[in-house]
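Summary: Need help interpreting a holo structure output

Steps to reproduce:
1. Submit the protein chain below together with the SMILES for adenosine-5'-diphosphate.
2. Request a joint structure prediction with the ligand placed.
3. Inspect the structure token block that comes back.

Expected: a single structure record containing both the chain and the bound molecule.
Actual: see attached output.

Input attached:
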Amino acid sequence: MTTVEAQQPVLELRNINLSYGSVVALDDVSFKAYAGEVIGLVGDNGAGKSSLIKTISGVNAPDGGEILVDGVVRHWRSPHDSMAAGIETLYQDSGLAPDLTIGSNVFLGRETRRRGVLGRLGFLDQRAMERGALEQLRRVGITIPETNRTVAELSGGQRQAVAIGRAIAWARHVIILDEPTNHLGARQSGEVLKVITSARGQGLCVLFISHTLPHVLEVCDRIIVLRLGRVVRDAPTTEFTVESLLGAITGLNE
Ligand SMILES: Nc1ncnc2c1ncn2[C@@H]1O[C@H](COP(=O)(O)OP(=O)(O)O)[C@@H](O)[C@H]1O
Ligand SMILES: [Mg+2]
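--- attached output ---
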């Protein structure tokens, strides 16, 4: 058996620093992430989680440090660059267009990046696009009866499933999910956790940001704890309990 440590990290951060004026949001953040791994990213409000994912996805440019994808140092000019490198990010606000169909949402904004796929399907062939979307979502374990309904007609859980499905369908290396189970019921959260497991099974690296520690402990292989912009723990999930994880997040009991 090859251990993950023997592989090349699919994503690596080296000494990332980011400040907003005098506020230090990320302080010397380094970690490695591997294909087929679900990593929990946890921390209190203001710990730097959103700043970190925005840096990985190219929304923020770091003040210092390096981001490597497949061992190569990359500099993002915009989120399009990180997407082109195979990194998909689902922000807290899903970014779906409620008035468009599910199918249209799955292909939204892909025109320039996936000319091949869209070229084959044809820009104006709505039905072919709906079929393509259905296939994409099925591939990641999401079954939606018809993709020609608008997103506005879906339940919260179904919307989230479409948003995650869309991100996973297009991701080639890394998928970043910011609080994907927020505002979902237990059953719907369970569905989302299943989709995360399915993404891992496809060899993606998943960065899972969540405040719901039982979800993190259930689905993650490893957990990175941020506190005041610094990585204070980075360890296999088996080394944590809810209590010790809370302790690492708050810094109490130290
Ligand atoms: N756009 C911004 N301008 C100024 N300060 C910010 C901005 N975004 C975040 N911060 C600050 O950076 C720190 C990290 O915030 P953030 O990355 O949002 O943490 P988290 O997502 O873990 O709650 C906090 O102190 C926050 O107040
Ligand atoms: Mg945040």
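--- end attachment ---

Reviewer comment: The chain has two domains: 8-86+172-254, 98-170. The beta strands are 11-20, 23-33, 38-42, 64-69, 72-74, 87-90, 174-178, 205-209, 222-227, 230-236.
Status: needs-info
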